[in-house]
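Second attempt. The first submission of ABC transporter domain-containing protein had a stray character pasted in from the spreadsheet, which I only caught after the job came back as garbage. Lesson logged: always re-copy from the clean sequence file. Corrected sequence (338 aa) follows.
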Amino acid sequence: MSADETTHAAPGTGPGDEAGRAPASVVDAAAAAAQEPSSATAVEARGELAEIEPVVGVSKPDAILVADDVVRRFGGMTACDVDHLEVQRGAITALIGPNGAGKTTFFNLLTGFDTPQSGTWSFEGRSLQGKSGARVAKAGMVRTFQLTKALSRLTVLQNMLLAAPDNPGERFWLSWLPFTWRAHEMAATEKAMEILARFKLADKAPDYAGSLSGGQRKLLEMARALMTDPTMIMLDEPMAGVNPVLVQSLLGHVQALRDEGMTVLFVEHDMHAVRHISDWVVVMAEGRIVAEGPPASVMRDQAVVDAYLGAHHDTDLGDDSLLDPEILARLEAEEEKR
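This time the job returned cleanly.
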């Protein structure tokens, strides 16, 4: 991890000011300040999910993504073995689990960056099995990466413009005829600047992407994904390596995506952020889905606690009391005695 990804910002500073250091509780304060869904679609999605029985593989009222029997093995190890999963349209679904649970592998399979041994999945009723990452993105399902993929030697604005679809200037012969693509380029640039302004990166537009901090690169990835006007956005650990103050901004952006009608599926390890912004939580362990349901019930599920902390714990993973150093010390002492 680079130094800029572990830097903490002082309270009250902007995304680019990371000179000071903020307490870890800022992260949890940001999560606790998360807003209730504001759009009609988001409110309806949360209401429908509240009436569903929280069991693995349960059907959703309006599933936008459906996966069946998705298996990926590496040699003799099964990294992913998902029997059935449905993702509700218009909701924020969190995919959680300990390291090595298979979350990113599952992401890679669904988005065309890896190939499974078996399985089928569909997006908005259309099969995406065997489709490339580019075809999946064109269908409206766009992802970001745990390790950001910004092109360091291009400017922030150029990184954004790369994601703009259907530019006629990308065709070899038309590229020699500026009048065929100039209007599209101007429109794409205007759209890119509007999105960068929303993510407080407009002043960074002429800077090389390699000069951004780790948190700013996370914002750039999310902003670049929006250039394609996705129906569903998949975020792989968007808060990982980000200073605590910037987490508040990221959480707000994730919620804003849902409130604008997008479906969000994200991988995250911060249980407090997951608890406060998610409408539904799916838990993976050893490649399989072991639980799913509303955040409050999943955090108390014994199978989930065992997956994170081992057996013989009765802890609510999303309980804010876990932030108490005395509670953390007690749990660590219990684990050492086992």
